Amino acid sequence: MSYVDEVIERVVKENPAQPEFHQAVKEVLESLRVVIEANEEMYRKEAILERLTNPERQFIFRVPWVDDKGNVQVNTGYRVQFNSAIGPYKGGLRLHPSVNIGIIKFLGFEQIFKNSLTGLPMGGGKGGSDFDPKGKSDREIMAFCQSFMTELCKHIGADTDVPAGDIGTGAREIGYMFGQYKRIRGVFEGVLTGKGLSYGGSLARTQATGYGLLYLTEEMLKCNGKDIKGKICAVSGSGNVATYAIEKAIQLGAKPVTCSDSTGWVYDPDGIDVAALKEIKEVKRARLTEYKNYRPNSEYHEGKGVWSVKCDIALPCATQNELDIEDAKQLVANGCMCVAEGANMPTTLEATKYIQDNGLLFSPGKASNAGGVATSGLEMSQNSERLSWTFEEVDEKLHGIMVNIFHSMDDAAKKYGMEGNYVAGANIAGFEKVVDAMLAQGVC
Ligand code: NDP
How far apart are CA 369 and CA 241, in angstroms? Predict the structure, then answer.
């Protein structure tokens, strides 16, 4: 049996009931097959794939907190420190009821390659909790965040592990967590990114993932002889990534016509009104049913349906496995020419294959959503320098990083005879640097 198949089999056997982790490992290792087979003897001897698929360290902890009725609630907290070959662990904290160790491991594993692709010195990690921030008061959110950080602060630090936001963790949650870290550890340091501007946050971090997605998409289209101007975009999600993807798409002359949340979706034939979207989601923290009050011409539908809309570009920006094979068939039938992932692993393996087989451009999340972590890396640099850069400086660096990421994955795909296969290209480019560092550092 080949080394790749052996390791996939072992990961499935040793990590039961973690389908998302299995899926991520399969996706990465399958696409690396040609590189691994070319070096099979050495990689096997060095146990490179066993080391890569086993986190360096994992923490699972109790998070007790008191709700507004005075009752004690208990959630589970996680932090997986996956790989520190090229820098301190870096990756977000997800707060969502669906969170479990398998989901955190899939995200942490993907993060290794994504961080490597940015060209910045950051290792891979991820964390979170099954806590649901929806419907909680500010006081309850603070109580949870403080309790979560009371344990987490023992394992992180500006030079060891630097968490950030993710689903359910925005500026408010990062603020409460930062305050608690400082209170317990007694140090003011860049231990979290996505911080508020008044205490060490970076300008453009809020916009970075969505903007970065569009910078990479624009470059990918350009290098394939296409222009983003005038293109219709279907976007899913209405959180941080989706909102700023929509904003940048409009700035680049495209027309995003959809957005969604976990209960329904909006179709606005005149183009999404990003100011209305921000007011509903960021200010009122309300549901998308409100959108119609701002734009009477729009439609609101319950359930899932964004991918049924005719579009040129699809930008999945909500969550994992939200675009399945039926959605992919619909996109292809409707003449879509490009799918660029804003979320982490939003496209199922089957759907990805169908999209690629039908000749659409496809950029994997680990490349196209890397703008968020890249700008977190820039926030770390500013914290270390004790300086703040302007919005334009950060945005320009972000743009350069996204263009470089596109060319790294494009070049890697070409080098191994897989031109246009950006899934393979992104994995190969990310993998080569991490493996090089692991080999140089010996058995550890
Ligand atoms: P947010 O919490 O800001 O928004 C998430 C959006 O997705 C919301 O609209 C939410 O709807 C929707 N959503 C969440 N879970 C589901 C579900 N199970 N089914 C349908 N819709 C769902 O998160 P972000 O925008 O920050 O993150 C979105 C994706 O991007 C995630 O995959 C994340 O890992 C990834 N990502 C984020 C980065 C960042 O910088 N923020 C960086 C790189 C990747 P509702 O409000 O109803 O829950």
Answer: 8
